[in-house]
Structures
1.
Amino acid sequence: MAEISKDINRAVEELTAGNLIGFPTETVYGLAGNAFDETSVLKIFETKNRPAFDPLIVHTHSVTEVEKFVKEIPAKLKLLMDAFWPGPMTFLLPKKEIIPDLVTSGLENVAIRIPNHKLALELLASLPFPLAAPSANPFGYVSPTKASHVNDQLGNKINFILEGGDCQIGLESTIVGMENGKVTVYRLGGIAIEDITKIVGKVEIKSHSSSNPAAPGMLKSHYSPSKRLVLKTAFQEIKSDFRNVGFIGFDKFHAEIPAENQILLSPDGNLSEAAKNLFSVLREIENRTEDLFIVELMPETGLGKAINDRLRRATVKD
Ligand code: TXA
Ligand code: MG
């Protein structure tokens, strides 16, 4: 198992030696390595069992650093950076040569993010290189939102996890870029579409494709937990086949299922709270005795859209 502590010096030591660490951010925990070091980057793909065609996000601590890594920042994206960084938004920008092709899987754009997490920013500021970090889960599994989640799945493959507490957002970052002069959203995430629209007007959303070349990681079933999970709309037909059915709801219990088989993402009806709890709950149900869980979609506003995106992916098989 990995050592879990708040010791930044230990994190620096591991990363400098070319090792990977569990890296806390406000969205989800990352599996981080030196983005300038191809050997470290290769280890990330290996450790996650991730196909090499699925590129990595580079994390840094200031826009001055970002300017060293990219050729330009389009004006509209700069507006979004000013509004949402540090925070749960990742930008696709044309990379300079300093970023290894391995990080971007040979694409011309690099994905960059400044996370809004005190310890993460302190670590990034004390390193002479940025950190490449995908979510710290084996490929195809839900993202970790606690240090213990990382330890459960990758603790035998890394020495150290920087303890940054529970992730405050709980959903991965919103990914944006420019396509044909338009601000385009490639992954729904921690910043809601409505908030982006307030800054730059209408945007294109391209996050629903099952084979999206700009964000190859967004495969339809990318977030599948191993426990069978179905959307509530299928409840009637499912009920007759399974005796032991559980329910994941937003703020209200399901009338036909025993209360002890139910989990609410936010009894107060708060979408931010639901987002924060989502991945923990998807992990928790794997260890429960119910045969399957029925899950209800959230209201399609604000973070509800990103939560529903993850739920739809989690309920798709193949
Ligand atoms: O919140 C987050 O974004 C977390 C934390 C750790 O920062 N990271 C994360 O990374 O979710 P990952 O690797 O699990 O998801 C990154 C997504 C993938 O779908 C990948 O395909 C896409 O970003 N991506 C990365 N670089 C890209 C690029 N150059 N062009 C297009 N898509 C890219
Ligand atoms: Mg991921």
Note: The first helix runs from residue 8 to 16.
2.
Amino acid sequence: MSSILIKNGLVVNANSTLKNDIMIVDGKIISVENSIELSASIENTIDASDCYVFPGGIDSHVHLDLPTPAGNSSDSFESGSRAAIAGGTTTVLDFVTPARGESLLNALNDRKQIAKKSCIDYGLHMSITWWNDAVAKEMERCVKEEGITSFKTYLAYKGTIGIDYKELEQVMRCAERLNVLVTVHCEEGEMLLKNQKQCISEGKTSPKYHALSRPDDVEYLAVAKVLALAEKTKCAVYIVHVSTAESMRLINVARSKDIKVYAETCPHYLLLNDTEYEREGFAGAAYVMSPPLRSHENTIALWNYVSDGSIDTIATDHCPFNLIGQKDMGISDFTKIPNGVAGIEDRLKLMYTYGVMKNRISLQHFVKITSVNAALIFGFYPQKGLIAKDSDADLVIFNPNTKGVISAAMQYQRCDTNIYEGFKTLGSIAYVIKNGIIVYKSKNGLLLNEAGKYIHRCM
Ligand code: URP
Ligand code: ZN
């Protein structure tokens, strides 16, 4: 029997912040009470005085070991999940991406083989990259047999994994019947392809044209069409990585008409802006992700949508590529720069520093958008996202009395750059407990490399 007693922490849940002790036995929280007595039989005791205790972070949008023409994203499930732990994230949702024509269940089995290297628990969103009746039948099996509650669709990436609006409508009708979610990458595929071709034909090949070929309307026009389909099909949708103020305005209008829609954004759309693409030479390539970084005005508006609760989740879309050896595939053609950036290790400290400490969100709001809401939306609450009896013992003990600076040289995530290089942070992760085991201590770094488990989810 393994046991941990956490004493005197300020325990932050979505609806309460209370000084309490937490008793953990064999991976589960068995009690959260005012004063739990020390006893000789308890294996580990942690003094969390002056610290917060948060539910382990849940990053609901990551791409570990993602195959691309520039090689796989540079974090494997093993390295990426270790970086996640160091950053206070104890659960991730990654993706299965079947090739066009491939069986969903075969692709799922293959992805599970790769994902079992994860050191933290993980769920998988199933991407729908093509459509026919067989896909509909397999969607049902994914939900009923495999515990998948979310299907990912891409309106960008035409010709590879992207689908069109007709196919999306079919996916949404099927998901609605199954009472599960459709998550959508909203970028107008045709529009951005046309813009890209025009840029290249005019010799505009540098990284900044990645952003210029994907202006705000490439995103929000797609958001508008997806919301119209959500109204028509009654399917609940989750818009991934919202990057523009106009998209959020449309989402809130839809909500006022009772359309069920969730919104996610990422720290990079809050903390960085499109001036990064003006960097010398090819350096802007490190910031190439889709959608691209937006104007300073958009970042301000997005923070307001975080503060007022319109944005449900902060995920990272963690999909790192090294500048040397991967991003540089696009040195003479920005369309060949692999899309994606790292963030899994920095999410909690960034949202604490620039959210909580800037008075944009409360501590309870912080745990909602970094953990609780993802578990609720994707169907694994209260197993995770809650510090209470019977929940998984996935916890972060956070010391607010420290300062740090983000640097690629110091990171666990496997990438030769960090888009937040030099950002100052307040507070740090003192301990991470995952399934009842201490897996990180600030003094010692990462401690163990325990296997994570696949999460069966249920709506
Ligand atoms: O640039 C991004 N977002 N890369 C990851 C794949 C995706 O589109 O989500
Ligand atoms: Zn993504």
Note: The mean pLDDT is 97.
